[in-house]
């Protein structure tokens, strides 16, 4: 299990390093060291200031980066708005009225361009923002490879097809990640980002009241946790009410996500599938990541 632990920890630190990029150029953490030495400080300072007013923002920035990387690679295509020739990914079903943090990326880009005009791509800014967000909330740091180029196109259809849904089975999750060149270790590790931030009630209502059209709750939900969620998300209530992914340490990027799965307190069906699918190879990975300290 030691080798699995080391691999999993590397996945946490690299985060999106295994996803495809739009450029074949060699990426380098020192890409801007001479041309924009202030880059890391600018990104870090802005996110820190924003987080004081909006504690959810680090989770939102990491999610924004993930949703970017799953479509055409980590190329900032998710930032593109609708035009005469572009159908924005922001209006794809997994993204619409859901993704946030665009204003923070714009704010960082403006500050970076003031210091280093027209040098740093939005794709690199978004990638750096994800790493800084991790560190500020207790998660790991990693050397971010830089030198990406921004996409000039978006792909809404691919966003609808590629991004995993909150009701996916383990088989569907593995398929979605495999399409990005990611394996089961990557799946379990990256799912750990659901240790902080919030989800809307609409994504869990079926689990609470009518799982798989049975008229009953999802049997893999902890009974006490089910009752708590039903109070927060009443059957005929607003689907836009937000619930913390992790009721224990909702503002920290830590390993509590895996602890929650072990006691049937995964908020999304797709998360609990990692531990509650009978005889799944992901169960041992959840147990291993539960033990890792970073």
What can be said about this structure in brief?
The protein is an all-alpha fold and 294 residues long. Helices cover 46% and strands 2% of the residues.
Structural notes for this entry:
The chain has 294 residues and is mainly α. The protein has two domains: 2-162, Peroxidase, domain 1 (Orthogonal Bundle), CATH 1.10.520; 170-291, Peroxidase, domain 2 (Orthogonal Bundle), CATH 1.10.420. The chain is 46% helix and 2% strand. A two-stranded antiparallel ribbon has the order 1-2. Helix 2 packs antiparallel against helix 4 (102-115) and helix 2 (39-53) packs across helix 5. The radius of gyration is 19 Å and the shape is globular. Heme b binds at residue 194. Its EC number is 1.11.1.7.
Short descriptors:
Peroxidase, domain 2, hydrogen peroxide, 294 residues, Peroxidase, domain 1, disordered N terminus, 2 domains, mainly alpha, heme binding
- Largest sheet: spatial strand order: 1-2
Secondary-structure content class: mainly alpha
Q: Determine the CATH topology of the largest domain.
A: Peroxidase, domain 1
Oligomer, anyone?
A: single chain
State the CATH class of the largest domain. Mainly Alpha
According to DSSP, the number of beta strands is 2
Task: Look at the structure and give the mean pLDDT.
Answer: 91
Order of helices and strands: HHHHHHHHEHHEHHH
Query: Can you tell me the overall shape?
Result: globular
Q: Describe the sheet with the most strands.
A: 2 strands, antiparallel
Which radius of gyration do the C-alpha atoms yield? Answer: 19 Å
Tell me the count of domains. 2
Proportion of β residues?
Answer: under 5%
GO molecular function: heme binding; lactoperoxidase activity; metal ion binding
Enzyme class: oxidoreductase
Catalytic activity: 2 a phenolic donor + H2O2 = 2 a phenolic radical donor + 2 H2O
Pfam families: peroxidase
């Amino acid at each position: 299990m030691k080798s699995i632990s080391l691999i999993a920890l590397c996945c946490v630190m690299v985060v999106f390093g295994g996803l495809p990029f739009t450029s074949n150029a060699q990426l380098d953490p020192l890409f801007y060291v001479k041309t924009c030495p202030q880059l890391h400080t600018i990104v870090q300072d802005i996110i820190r200031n924003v987080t004081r007013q909006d504690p959810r923002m680090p989770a939102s920035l990491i999610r924004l980066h993930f949703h970017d990387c799953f479509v055409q690679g980590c190329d900032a295509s998710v930032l593109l708005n609708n035009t005469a020739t572009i159908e924005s990914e922001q209006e794809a079903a997994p993204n619409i009225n859901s993704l946030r943090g665009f204003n923070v990326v714009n704010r960082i880009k403006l500050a970076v361009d003031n210091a280093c005009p027209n040098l740093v791509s939005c794709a690199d800014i978004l990638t750096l923002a994800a790493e800084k967000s991790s560190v500020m909330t207790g998660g790991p740091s990693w050397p971010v490879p830089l030198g990406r180029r921004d996409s000039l196109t978006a792909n809404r259809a691919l966003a609808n097809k590629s991004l995993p849904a909150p009701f996916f089975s383990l088989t569907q999750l593995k398929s979605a990640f495999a399409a990005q060149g990611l394996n089961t270790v990557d799946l379990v590790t990256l799912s750990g980002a659901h240790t902080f931030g919030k989800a809307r009630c609409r994504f869990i209502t079926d689990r609470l009241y009518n799982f798989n059209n049975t008229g009953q709750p999802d049997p893999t939900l902890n009974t006490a946790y089910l009752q708590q969620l039903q109070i927060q998300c009443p059957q005929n209530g607003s689907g836009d009410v937000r619930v913390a992914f992790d009721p224990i340490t909702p503002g920290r990027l830590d390993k509590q996500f895996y602890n929650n799965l072990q006691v049937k307190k995964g908020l999304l069906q797709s998360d609990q599938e990692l531990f509650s699918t009978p005889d799944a190879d992901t169960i041992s990975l959840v147990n291993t990541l539960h033990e890792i300290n970073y």
